[in-house]
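Quiz preparation item.
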């Protein structure tokens, strides 16, 4: 099978999840609890949600609920782990995109929804996310590009979540596949559909110099067009009253702030501030108990009428941290915790910092600026 054929198969098969949601809700599943379509985006900044840059998302924001959160880690896999596990990055075990794994048995958003009769499907367009991370736990089916780490999964996961070979796909292919697969699908009850898009982040890794700005503008428009098409499909299927459509970024991009051109090395505002845009059934609202991504999962459950409170009596304070500087360049990490008084820097000798393996007390090397400049070329 050629690369083109594999790519079409990947998109067409995986994106049946959106179609299933559409058909289920269009036919009326007879349940008061709505389905959930969750779109996560890597590289979308809070200030990207404008009429000029992303008119469809801006329109969704104006007609629904829109607010900002802060990501726990400015990397996709650990941020998604914090979201899905509703826990802090020093406890999830996922600190990088390529290494780390949610502990076995740890409940995830998909698993919690499955307990309440939801059929969970996921489609991931970024090969840096793999089954090894545990992010796919709780889903009945996930289609995603494969990575070199895909062999490090449990036997049951290998059978259910075997990813086809292929690379990242574009948002335009996603929406075309959704439209093509709406016909002939069977009726399904409550659905949790997760779609992860990475164009705004991948655009910066695929372009160099001044071309990055134009590449990122095109990527934002691709994602926005996909969101506009998805909203149109939801509306045309007459399921708007019975589905929660939520769009959230997992990290932004620095774009030169603090000398950083992408993400993962700093806790600058452009990297950690992320938008949340939601259109919910009448009477429902998203209300995280702290403005941090790790607290969004319980809020999503509450918006669907499910008790989203954690099982533990006392959850730790939200943690925001970077592990990439020390791992890749030997720079000091950054970490801070959230309370009602705002963010507080974590001290190097703090027990939580030691337990998390944060290298907060390393001296900043003299060549830091040179390295950042080289990354921008």
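Solution:
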């Amino acid at each position: 099978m050629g690369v083109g054929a594999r790519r079409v198969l990947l998109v067409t098969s995986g994106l049946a999840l959106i179609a299933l949601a559409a058909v289920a809700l269009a036919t009326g599943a007879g349940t008061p609890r709505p389905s959930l379509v969750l779109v996560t985006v890597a590289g979308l900044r809070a200030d990207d949600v404008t009429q000029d840059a992303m008119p469809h998302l801006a329109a969704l924001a104006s007609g629904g609920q829109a607010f900002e959160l802060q990501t726990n880690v400015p990397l996709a896999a650990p941020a998604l782990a914090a979201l899905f596990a509703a826990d802090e990055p020093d406890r999830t075990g996922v600190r990088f995109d390529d290494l780390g794994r949610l502990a076995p048995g740890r409940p995830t958003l998909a698993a919690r929804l499955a307990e309440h009769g939801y059929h969970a499907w996921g489609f991931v367009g970024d090969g840096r996310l793999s089954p090894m991370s545990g992010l796919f736990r709780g889903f009945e089916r996930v289609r995603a590009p494969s990575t070199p780490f895909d062999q490090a999964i449990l036997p049951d996961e290998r059978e259910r979540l075997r990813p086809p070979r292929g690379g990242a796909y574009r948002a335009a292919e996603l929406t075309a596949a959704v439209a093509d697969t709406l016909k002939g699908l069977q009726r399904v009850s409550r659905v949790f559909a997760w779609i992860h898009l990475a164009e705004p982040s991948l655009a910066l890794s695929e372009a160099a110099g001044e071309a990055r700005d134009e590449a990122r503008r095109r990527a934002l428009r691709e994602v926005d067009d996909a969101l506009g098409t998805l909203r149109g499909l939801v509306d045309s299927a007459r399921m708007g009253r019975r589905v929660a459509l939520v769009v959230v970024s997992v990290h932004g991009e620095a774009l030169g702030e603090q000398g950083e051109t992408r993400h993962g090395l700093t806790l600058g505002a452009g990297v950690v501030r992320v938008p949340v845009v939601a259109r919910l059934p009448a009477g429902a609202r998203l209300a995280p108990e702290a403005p941090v991504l790790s607290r969004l999962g319980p809020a999503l459950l509450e918006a669907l009428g499910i008790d989203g409170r954690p099982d533990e009596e006392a959850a730790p304070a939200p943690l925001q941290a970077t592990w990439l500087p020390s791992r890749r360049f030997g720079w000091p990490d950054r970490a801070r915790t959230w309370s009602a008084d705002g963010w507080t820097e974590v001290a190097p000798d703090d027990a939580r910092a030691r337990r998390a393996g944060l290298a907060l007390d390393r001296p900043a090397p003299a060549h830091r600026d040179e390295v950042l400049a080289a990354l921008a070329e």
